[in-house]
From TrEMBL:
Record-stated family: Belongs to the UPF0065 (bug) family.
Record-linked InterPro entries: BUG (IPR005064), Bug_dom1 (IPR042100)
Assigned keywords, A-Z: Signal
Protein name per Swiss-Prot or TrEMBL: Tripartite tricarboxylate transporter substrate binding protein
Lineage: Bacteria, Pseudomonadati, Pseudomonadota, Betaproteobacteria, Burkholderiales
Signal sequence, start to end: 1-33
Keyword Nuclease: no
Pfam families, A to Z: TctC
Organism of provenance: Ramlibacter henchirensis
CDD domains: PBP2_Bug_TTT
């Protein structure tokens, strides 16, 4: 057997060249295996029924992303468990950006602290991406109610403890928590009448069978403009762009500032480039007249677009803020 002896210097050069070639081969294989995002359809889970406000907004976002990302965006309605069913599905999906969620304040902040066994921790198991808009709530009364200002409303309710009733869309809903917070802050006694959704309470509210309710703009504004309801004030501390003439509750009750919101999220540990790409495409959409018209149709208040890191901070602060509010209200969901 012939043994070839290679000088040490030459051997070192050969080893280095071989190592570099192996590294390049591995990098090339990796690049070929990972196609640029997105390279396949994207599923957007909406944890509400088809036709709901969140569904309408989610579908519009999906249509816009389909156009800009050049991939189909498919909406998958998964209502249930106070929106946590859809959240769990997304949390269990691969964090590759191909399964997204349209969560609300209920999903990210309320339900996990209302349900005894939520089965998900949204702060750890979901990646906040963007905020789409806010939901203002109008404290609405039947026109026969003997008050036309928030100050008069407080005086009337205080003078007749237990006489008046309020409707909500269910135990633990924002409508319920907001009123219980107001009752607690002002020392009021108002009877709670829960319904299965705000729409189901409207016949009784419009007929005067129940006296008042916090309603989102889709239900409140048309009836206020038609004279079928009267608003005492809004839950947000800034006046509504949808009905600027309506005062805020905070103008009479300092510190009262509550709202709902809708956003976009994905599973935990999503790659930062994917998160940033999605956030940027949504930000572009939010700057268009089409999106402003969409929010107006959904009776939602516009919010300033914020980057994903700021959105994550917002979600954490909302979670921390809602915990004491829920405990104060005494609301629970079995």
């Amino acid at each position: 057997m012939t043994v070839i002896v290679i000088p040490r210097r030459q051997a070192v050069r050969l080893i280095r060249r071989w190592t570099a070639l192996v590294a390049l081969s591995i990098a090339a294989a990796g690049a070929g295996a990972q196609a640029p995002y997105p390279s396949q359809p994207i599923k957007v889970v909406v944890p509400f029924p088809a036709g709901s406000l969140v569904d309408v907004l989610g579908r519009s976002i999906g249509e816009a992303l389909t156009g800009t990302l050049k991939q189909p965006v498919v909406i998958d309605n998964k209502p249930g468990a106070s929106t946590l069913l859809g959240a769990k599905i997304v949390a269990a999906a691969p964090p590759d950006g191909y399964t997204l969620l349209v969560p609300t304040v209920t999903t990210m902040s309320m339900a996990p602290q209302l349900v005894s066994r939520p089965g998900i921790d949204p702060l750890r198991e979901l990646t906040p991406i963007a905020r789409l808009g806010a939901t203002n709530f109008f404290l609405s009364v039947h026109p026969s109610f003997p008050a036309r200002t928030m100050k008069e409303w407080i005086a009337e309710v205080k003078a007749h403890p237990g006489k008046y009733s309020y409707a909500s869309s269910g135990n633990g809903s924002p409508h319920h928590v907001f009123m219980e917070l107001l009752k607690k802050q002002l020392g009021l006694d108002i009877v709670h009448v829960p319904y299965k959704g705000s729409s189901s309470s409207m016949p009784d509210l419009l007929s005067g069978k129940v006296d008042m309710a916090f309603l989102d703009g889709t239900l409140a504004i048309p009836n206020i403009k038609a004279g079928k309801l009267f608003t005492m004030g809004t839950s947000m501390a800034r006046r509504s762009v949808l009905l600027p003439s309506a005062p805020t509750i905070a103008e009479t009750v300092p510190g009262f500032d509550w709202s709902g919101w809708i956003g976009v999220a994905g599973p935990a540990n999503m790659p930062a480039p994917v998160v940033n790409l999605l956030a940027e495409e949504i930000r572009k959409l939010q700057s268009t007249p089409h999106f402003a018209e969409l929010l107006n149709k959904a009776a939602m208040e516009p919010t300033e677009p914020i980057p994903p890191a700021a959105m994550a901070d917002f979600v954490r602060s909302e979670y921390a803020r809602w915990g004491p509010a829920i405990r104060t209200s005494g609301a629970t969901i079995d």
